[in-house]
């Protein structure tokens, strides 16, 4: 018995990877995601390797996972992959407090983010 298999959401020439609960704000993560959007995967990996942003290491890991999914699960050619989509979502926010003067309190917000990367195989035109 069991549940019926869900239909594939992506096209046949696409693969994706999702990283949840990254410990950075969505605004900071979106700066790095914008940097790789629309580029070939080897160029995007090089950009992330030499980026000075702390979160670039986690974005690179997610991109490598999407490339591995494309190669192993969907039999796509790694050399013709581009980063079709890279988008960021909000996750939970931890609330912390810092004591301040005269009995007041300072609010500290520690946000988390989700990252989704979709890679697509494109035919190269000569």
Automatic annotation (TrEMBL):
The entry's cellular-component GO terms read: cytosolic large ribosomal subunit
What GO molecular function annotations does the UniProt record carry, in alphabetical order?
A: rRNA binding; structural constituent of ribosome
| Gene3D superfamilies assigned | Ribosomal protein L22/L17 (3.90.470.10)
Which PROSITE patterns does the entry mention? Answer: RIBOSOMAL_L22
Query: What biological processes does GO assign it?
Result: translation
Q: Which UniProt keywords apply?
A: Ribonucleoprotein, Ribosomal protein, RNA-binding, rRNA-binding
- Mind telling me which InterPro entries this protein's record contains? Ribosomal_uL22 (IPR001063), Ribosomal_uL22_bac/chlpt-type (IPR005727), Ribosomal_uL22_bac/org-type (IPR047867), Ribosomal_uL22_CS (IPR018260), Ribosomal_uL22_sf (IPR036394)
Origin: domain of life:
Bacteria
- Could you tell me which SUPFAM superfamilies the record lists for this protein? Ribosomal protein L22 (SSF54843)
Role played: The globular domain of the protein is located near the polypeptide exit tunnel on the outside of the subunit, while an extended beta-hairpin is found that lines the wall of the exit tunnel in the center of the 70S ribosome.
Q: According to its UniProt record, which protein family does this protein belong to?
A: Belongs to the universal ribosomal protein uL22 family.
Subunit relationships: Part of the 50S ribosomal subunit.
Q: What NCBIfam families does UniProt report for this protein, alphabetically?
A: rplV_bact
The name under which this protein is listed is Large ribosomal subunit protein uL22
Underlying gene: rplV
């Amino acid at each position: 018995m069991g549940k019926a298999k869900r239909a594939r959401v992506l096209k046949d020439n696409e693969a994706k990877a999702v990283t949840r609960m990254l410990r950075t704000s969505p605004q900071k993560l979106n700066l790095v995601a914008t940097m790789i959007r629309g580029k070939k995967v080897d160029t995007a990996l090089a950009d992330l390797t030499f980026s000075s942003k702390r979160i670039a290491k986690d974005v690179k890991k997610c991109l490598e996972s999407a490339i591995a999914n494309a190669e192993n699960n969907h039999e796509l050619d790694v050399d013709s992959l581009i980063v079709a989509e890279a988008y960021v979502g909000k996750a939970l926010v931890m609330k912390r407090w810092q004591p301040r003067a005269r009995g007041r309190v300072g609010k500290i917000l520690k946000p988390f983010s989700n990252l989704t990367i979709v890679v697509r195989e494109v035919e190269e035109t000569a």
